[in-house]
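Design review, sub-item: ligand-bound model
Attendees: FS, YL, KQ
YL presented the inputs for the G3I complex:
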Amino acid sequence: MSLSRRELLKTSIGTCLALSQIKAKVFASALSSKGLKALYKDNFLLGTMLKPEAYLRETPEFTKLVNTEFNAIVADNAFKWMNIHPTDEHWDWSYADEFVKFGERNNMYNVGHVLVWHSQNPIGLFQGEGSDLKSGDVMLAKLEEHITTIVTRYKGRINAWDVVNEALDGNGWVNNEWYRTIGEDYVAKAFFAAHQADPEAVLLYNDYNLSSPSRRDVLVDYLSKAKNSGVPIHAVGMQGHFSLDFPNLDDFEESIEAFAEQGVRVHISELDVDVLPGLGPDQFPDYAAELDPYRDGLSSELEAKLAQRYSEIFKVLIKHQDKIDRVNLWGTTDGESWKNDFPIEGRVNYPLLFDRKLEPKAAYRAVAELKSTAI
Ligand code: G3I
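KQ shared the predicted structure:
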């Protein structure tokens, strides 16, 4: 008995649909057991930022999620100067030690964040006599001792360090206390000290808004000078605090290319995508209901926009995978993001790949689908 053309067509459309449904099911089930890190294993490491709850008071659900999806971790605040070295004589290793052990137990690429920054330092770190700052020599000795002590303690156990954070902007050196005491040399000295303490560790210069052409140019200029003077900067950490329409992804791409041309690797170190209304230049960061429109949940349009944005960002990252070693989200679930409290405290934001109940979002599926043939 022969089939009519119409019946044949119907049967083959049916077969195709059934096959694609089976494929989608196989993909979904492989994804839920192997996670994003398996999909991206040939592209780059996929990381997340951990808060202390994750490694001090582990819950099996959260640890399982982190282990399934990610193969790199960075700590939120554990290594920041004010926490790890609150006074000259006192070191508090309690958080950093547990973070590192968590990474080792779970076979993670461990990232130490951050050795030198203008923010989250102990009160009085720079304070000299009266209203003066301490001298450059004193601050340089402190900086070197701080770096040497931390990096030596974790030698061979931390794979990469954010050595210096946010030292440059679109005009040149940020006029922070490190710069005012030591001068621009503080950056190079920090890298030399870290390299001496652990010659195997990957050393990063980490900064935000690096898609901006003026900030890009300033950093490229510095990288080129640093290279000529043998400063051991191995990678640039592009933080990646994005929103739905900022930055322009052409600019983002140009920056990835420009840094790689200077002979350094690129890490996307703190990726998240803010969906809430931004503040205008004359708006004070006070809470207002109209600035917090999604308290009861994200609309489906916005959910789709966020997924689309993540998909576009990851397309760029995949395109430049030869230059990129790690893509690190700044947190796992929306509930733990700093974006709920910045620039206004107490809003409800949705910047990450998992929701407040640890469930994958549309953005997660969009990132996974780009690699649906990889499992
Ligand atoms: O621990 C106190 C708590 O006791 C208090 O009740 C609460 C009240 O606000 O504050 C808590 O401290 C907060 C701390 O995070 C711990 O959660 C600080 O206020 C808050 O300022 C601090 O924010 C951190 C922020 O850096 C400070 O600049 C964020 O967790 C951290 O994610 C964020 O990370 C930075 C990177 O280091 C560098 N790049 C930018 C990125 C985002 O700002």
